Amino acid sequence: MPTAEDLKRRIEDAIPQAAADVEDLTGGGDHFRATVASPAFAGRSRIEQHRMVYDVFGDEVGGPIHALSIKTQTAEREP
Amino acid sequence: MTDENTQIRDAIKGAIDDNRVIIFMKGTPEQPRCGFSARTVAALQALGTPFAAVDILPHPAIREQLSALSNWPTIPQLFVDGELVGGCDIVTEMYESGELAELVGVEQPAEAPVAAEPAQAPPLQIQDPPR
């Protein structure tokens, strides 16, 4: 069963310079909320930004990860 | 793809083409079967815009074909003018910012918080992120 910490690490590993904050909404390891900031979101629509986060987990969303609520923010690129 | 799946996919495409504002959800607007669907449909109702709703629960292939078509893994999914707008998070964000009213071409309601009726809400309550 994935933990909020697992999700955070996987998002940050997959999306360039991402900072993720993941919360397990029910404590059951299947409903999560992720707030993700990355400079990689710049110039992309919300749909595309959210797809980038969903893509980290592929078929797991809707499977073991029953629900993943997402909020994205475009972060400044680190020098 | 089996004939049945092709038929379902064509029916979904047809419904998206025929309805300017259409939501694919779990349950119905009167009886949502998931908190995310309830919240998303509540945003549309608050805007007072006409919309079509498709319940994806009766057959698993509806959801499979919809997600294959839209490249979006979760339900609900809102389409406006044939384009995927998003799921609960994006629709709620756009409702609150007034972008959704602009997109569907209605006035932003003065005061209409998006909240599922308690009677319709499932155990999971989605709260606004802390500010």
Please render the helix and strand layout as text.
The complex is a heterodimer of chains A (79) and B (131).
Chain A: H1 4-14, E1 19-24, E2 31-38, H2 46-57, E3 67-74
Parallel strand pairs in A: 2-3
Antiparallel strand pairs in A: 1-2
Chain B: H1 3-18, E1 21-25, H2 35-47, E2 52-55, H3 60-70, E3 77-80, E4 83-86, H4 88-97, H5 99-104
Parallel strand pairs in B: 1-2
Antiparallel strand pairs in B: 1-3, 3-4
Helix pairs in contact in B: 1-3, 2-4
Please give a quick description of this structure.
The complex is a heterodimer of chains A (79) and B (131). Chain A has 79 residues and is α+β, with helices and mostly antiparallel strands. Chain A has helices at 4-14, 46-57, and strands spanning 19-24, 31-38, 67-74.
Describe what you observe in this structure:
The complex is a heterodimer of chains A (79) and B (131). By secondary structure, chain A is of the alpha+beta class. In chain A, 29% of the residues lie in helices and 28% in strands. In chain A, strands 1-2-3 form a three-stranded mixed beta sheet, covered by helices on one side. Chain A is globular and about 40 Å long. With 131 residues, chain B is α+β, with helices and mostly antiparallel strands. Chain B contains five helices and four strands; from the N terminus they run H-E-H-E-H-E-E-H-H. In chain B, a hairpin with a 2-residue loop joins strand 3 (77-80) and strand 4 (83-86). In chain B, helix 1 crosses helix 3 (60-70) and helix 2 (35-47) packs parallel to helix 4 (88-97). Mean pLDDT of chain B is 87; it is low at 116-126. The A-B interface holds A 25-26, 31, 33, 35, 46-47, 50-51, 54, 59, 61-62, 67-71 and B 36, 67, 71-74, 84-90, 93-94, 124, 126, 129.
